[in-house]
């Protein structure tokens, strides 16, 4: 009974929040709604008994990814409304709708066919985190490691892109002082 | 606090503690060395120790720097220029002011106003004497110019009042006659310097 | 403490516990401001609040009255809705994090058989949940800064984002090593692991120090109080806040300090086990109180650092140290 209510609360609020994300003209509203929606999704995970995934959802998506979005948004005036330009609204609507329909079909097909089976069923007496770990390090070891490698590559690339002038300190460099003095002299 | 201490304003002769700051590290290796040095130097913990010691001092030994202001006050310098006082002659109890009007003349914000008349002994008497403290800038010229050391600066610095007339009438500034024995000679602006006697030179009578 | 021996946890017990946490921690958070002012005052040879009530104890009530009756100003160009909910997010996440933390020992309500557990919700990924909630807590300052259309606010929220994101990495990595030793994410297991009297600090001193440093950063305390450093950015993300909204940020900050104190004492300092002859519940309160005091002590003693030094410290010193610590722990476990 509680779970029933909780599921609908989480599901409906997730949908509404994500709708706000898409519909809102205000960056701040969209961002807040997206973050709140992520929290609601982690609530769904908790309901399913997948506490580990729920917490990871919280830490990774809410705590890290969304915060990075927010960081990027600080370069704009977040309190202003944004005017979106739609070149071809019909096309966008059609394509978007088609995608949504496709997803619904894809996910409902096995339910209708009534043949969902867990390939790796939960082992009794094993915690959530352990179960995820077992699957990750046996069946999905190669994709897991490849993903790790890709992230490492991306990280190094990011550091190299961002860090070209990282050690250049304006306060300590003599030439910067001189430059500023010259500018002052000009003025 | 004695006057000598207040008069010692010689900046630079006190015992200042000089920090010998290193130069900022330039390359990565010296930066690293600095970090290692700072990590393993117990400086941070010395800081913690100092604050803990001070806490113990103020908790158990009553060493606190707080002056609980409205209840206790710090002494002000005798040279401090606050609300004026009018002094009396010690011997007769009469007020010192001879009504010469110099203070009224010199006041740069034109805030002293006075009226004088001759009394029955053909002696000048001050009938009105007010200082407009809304205008006074406490420059001290009046005290400096007064030939009789009559108008001086007192120590009343709490100037909040419901009306400025409260402390600007002659009677308010004058030392109350019953407290005459408490009246102190002013050491500040315009006062005779402590070594005035030594500075007196005999007038050359060469002509 | 054996889990099977405990009486059954009912919904009523959990609700009582939740109300208890809310009431007690909110009160302690308020009281914490008094303690902080007093201790900082003594350390700087002042007296601190002392006119309202005996030893100034009622200063707390005076502050509360002032905060509640202050005019609630919302700036003209601010995003009013977000501006209004941002402080609530800070306070709420701080309290939700406490739901998975063993704050007081469990007890039975007198005259009933309602058992109030020591943890409101004993999920078996407790530590991660607390860290996750504290991570979500960054939205309070972040949204507050962005919604108030004030440049100091924006700078404050940018600093929030970089500081919290960076130090979450250190918190997570530093606490990973003890997790590997214990082999569980539940606070109860951590407590049981240390029943033999050997605290985890002994095995993991580096992790403990790293966690403390990162904890200071995550609770926005000196020396890492860059989010609202007065001398640089007025008040950062709280520049435009007044009255009780500002008070909520404060309560959230103090609740977070308590949370960090609880994690440090349960994970590293032996939890609520009995120590020698001192019963466990006194021990845990003493440990939390000490870590709270330590935060104030540090605030009185150390200067705060520049943002670039903060980042440098995080990514070039603390994170590598944490990774090396994990590596060594892993090697030791394997051998
Ligand atoms: S200068 Fe002195 S003596 Fe002359 S009027 Fe003023 S107070 Fe009186
Ligand atoms: S202190 Fe200066 S401004 Fe004030 S009454 Fe004396 S001369 Fe005038």
Automatic annotation (TrEMBL), chain A:
Compartments (UniProt record): Cell membrane
Protein origin, superkingdom: Bacteria
Transmembrane segments: 6-23, 28-49, 55-78, 90-112, 140-162
Main subcellular localisation: membrane
UniProt GO MF annotations: NADH dehydrogenase (ubiquinone) activity; oxidoreductase activity; quinone binding
EC number: 7.1.1.-
Catalytic activity: a quinone + NADH + 5 H(+)(in) = a quinol + NAD(+) + 4 H(+)(out)
GO cellular component, one term: plasma membrane
Membrane topology: Multi-pass membrane protein
Function: NDH-1 shuttles electrons from NADH, via FMN and iron-sulfur (Fe-S) centers, to quinones in the respiratory chain. Couples the redox reaction to proton translocation (for every two electrons transferred, four hydrogen ions are translocated across the cytoplasmic membrane), and thus conserves the redox energy in a proton gradient.
PANTHER family xrefs: NADH-UBIQUINONE OXIDOREDUCTASE CHAIN 6 (PTHR33269:SF17)
Record's protein name: NADH-quinone oxidoreductase subunit J
TrEMBL record, chain B:
GO BP term, example: aerobic respiration
Membrane disposition: Peripheral membrane protein
Domain of life per record: Bacteria
Domain 4Fe-4S ferredoxin-type: 87-117, 127-156
Gene name per UniProt: nuoI
Iron-sulfur in keyword set: yes
NCBIfam families with a match to the protein in the record: NuoI, PRK05888.2-3
Cofactor: [4Fe-4S] cluster
Source organism (scientific name): uncultured Sulfurovum sp
Protein name: NADH-quinone oxidoreductase subunit I
Function, as annotated: NDH-1 shuttles electrons from NADH, via FMN and iron-sulfur (Fe-S) centers, to quinones in the respiratory chain. The immediate electron acceptor for the enzyme in this species is believed to be ubiquinone. Couples the redox reaction to proton translocation (for every two electrons transferred, four hydrogen ions are translocated across the cytoplasmic membrane), and thus conserves the redox energy in a proton gradient.
Automatic annotation (TrEMBL), chain C:
GO biological process: aerobic respiration
Reactions catalysed, as given in the entry: a quinone + NADH + 5 H(+)(in) = a quinol + NAD(+) + 4 H(+)(out)
Molecular functions (GO terms): NADH dehydrogenase activity; oxidoreductase activity, acting on NAD(P)H, quinone or similar compound as acceptor; quinone binding
Transmembrane segments: 12-35, 81-103, 123-144, 164-185, 197-217, 254-272, 278-298, 310-334
Keyword terms of this UniProt record: Cell membrane, Membrane, NAD, Oxidoreductase, Quinone, Translocase, Transmembrane, Transmembrane helix, Ubiquinone
A Pfam family recorded for this sequence: NADHdh
Top-rank taxon, per record: Bacteria
Uppermost EC category: translocase
GO cellular component, one term: plasma membrane
Entry keyword Transmembrane helix: yes
Topology with respect to the bilayer: Multi-pass membrane protein
Compartments in which it is found: Cell membrane; Membrane
Task of the protein: NDH-1 shuttles electrons from NADH, via FMN and iron-sulfur (Fe-S) centers, to quinones in the respiratory chain. The immediate electron acceptor for the enzyme in this species is believed to be ubiquinone. Couples the redox reaction to proton translocation (for every two electrons transferred, four hydrogen ions are translocated across the cytoplasmic membrane), and thus conserves the redox energy in a proton gradient. This subunit may bind ubiquinone.
Similarity remark: Belongs to the complex I subunit 1 family.
Subunit description: NDH-1 is composed of 14 different subunits. Subunits NuoA, H, J, K, L, M, N constitute the membrane sector of the complex.
NCBIfam families xref list: PRK06076.1-2
Protein name as catalogued: NADH-quinone oxidoreductase subunit H
Upper taxonomic lineage: Bacteria, Pseudomonadati, Campylobacterota, Epsilonproteobacteria, Campylobacterales
């Amino acid at each position: 009974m509680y779970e029933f209510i909780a599921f609908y609360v989480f599901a409906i609020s997730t949908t509404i929040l994500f709708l706000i994300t898409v519909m809102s003209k205000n960056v701040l509203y969209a961002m807040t709604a997206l973050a709140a929606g992520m929290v609601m999704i982690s609530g769904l995970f908790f309901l399913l008994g997948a506490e580990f995934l729920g917490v990871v959802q919280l830490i990774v998506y809410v705590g890290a990814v969304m915060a990075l979005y927010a960081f990027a948004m600080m370069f704009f005036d977040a309190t202003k409304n944004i005017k979106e330009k739609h070149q071809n609204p019909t096309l966008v609507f059609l394509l978007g709708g088609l995608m949504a329909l496709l997803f619904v079909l894809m996910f409902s097909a096995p339910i209708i066919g009534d043949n969902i089976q867990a390939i790796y069923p939960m082992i009794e007496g094993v915690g959530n985190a352990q179960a995820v770990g077992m699957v990750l390090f046996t069946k999905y070891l190669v994709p897991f490691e490849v993903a790790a490698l890709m992230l490492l590559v991306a990280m190094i690339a990011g550091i190299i892109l961002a860090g070209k002038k990282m050690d250049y300190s304006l306060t300590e460099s003599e030439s910067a002082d001189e430059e500023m003095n010259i500018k002052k002299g000009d003025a | 606090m004695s006057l000598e201490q207040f008069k010692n304003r010689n900046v630079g002769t006190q015992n200042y503690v000089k920090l010998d700051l290193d130069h900022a590290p330039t390359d990565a290796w010296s930066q690293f060395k600095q970090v290692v040095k700072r990590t393993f130097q117990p400086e941070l913990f010395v800081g913690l120790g100092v604050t803990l010691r001070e806490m113990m001092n103020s908790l158990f030994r009553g060493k606190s720097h707080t002056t609980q202001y409205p209840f206790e006050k710090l002494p002000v310098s005798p040279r401090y220029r606050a609300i004026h006082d009018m002094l009396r002659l010690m011997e007769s109890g009469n007020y010192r002011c001879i009504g010469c009007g110099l203070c009224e003349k010199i006041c740069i914000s034109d805030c002293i106003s006075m009226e004088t008349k001759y009394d029955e002994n053909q002696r000048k008497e001050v009938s009105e004497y007010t200082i407009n403290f809304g205008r006074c800038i406490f420059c001290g010229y009046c005290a400096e110019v007064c030939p009789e050391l009559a108008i001086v600066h007192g120590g009343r610095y709490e100037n909040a009042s419901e009306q400025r007339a409260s402390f600007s009438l002659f009677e308010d500034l004058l030392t109350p006659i019953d407290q005459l024995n408490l009246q102190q000679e002013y050491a500040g602006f315009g006062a005779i310097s402590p070594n005035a006697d030594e500075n007196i030179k005999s007038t050359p009578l060469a002509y | 403490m054996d889990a099977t021996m405990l009486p059954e946890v009912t919904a009523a017990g959990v609700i009582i516990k939740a109300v208890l946490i809310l009431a007690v921690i909110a009160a302690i958070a308020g009281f914490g401001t008094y303690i902080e002012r007093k201790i900082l005052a003594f350390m700087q040879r002042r007296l601190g609040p002392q006119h309202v009530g005996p030893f100034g104890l009622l200063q707390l009530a005076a502050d509360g009255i002032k905060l509640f009756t202050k005019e609630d100003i919302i700036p003209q160009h601010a995003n009013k809705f977000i501006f209004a909910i941002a402080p609530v997010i800070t306070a709420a996440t701080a309290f939700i994090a406490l739901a998975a933390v063993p704050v007081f020992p469990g007890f039975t309500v007198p005259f009933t058989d309602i058992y109030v557990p020591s943890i409101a919700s004993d999920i078996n990924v407790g530590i991660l949940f607390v860290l996750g909630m504290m991570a979500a807590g960054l939205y309070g300052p972040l949204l507050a800064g962005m919604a108030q259309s004030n440049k100091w606010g924006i700078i404050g929220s940018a600093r929030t984002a970089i500081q919290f994101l960076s130090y979450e990495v250190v918190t997570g990595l530093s606490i990973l090593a003890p997790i590997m030793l214990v082999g569980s994410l539940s606070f109860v297991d951590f407590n049981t692991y240390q029943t033999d009297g050997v605290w985890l600090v002994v095995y993991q001193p580096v992790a403990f120090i790293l966690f403390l440093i990162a904890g200071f950063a995550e609770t926005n305390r000196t020396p890492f109080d860059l989010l609202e450093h007065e001398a640089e950015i007025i008040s950062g993300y709280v520049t435009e806040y007044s009255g009780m909204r500002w008070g909520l940020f404060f309560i959230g900050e103090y609740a977070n300090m308590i949370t960090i104190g609880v994690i440090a004492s349960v994970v590293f300092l032996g939890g609520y086990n009995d120590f020698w002859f001192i019963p466990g519940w006194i021990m845990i309160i003493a440990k939390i109180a000490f870590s709270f005091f330590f935060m104030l002590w540090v605030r009185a003693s150390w200067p705060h650092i520049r943002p670039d030094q903060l980042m440098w410290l995080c990514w070039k010193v603390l994170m590598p140290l944490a990774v090396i610590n994990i590596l060594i722990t892993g090697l030791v476990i394997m051998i």
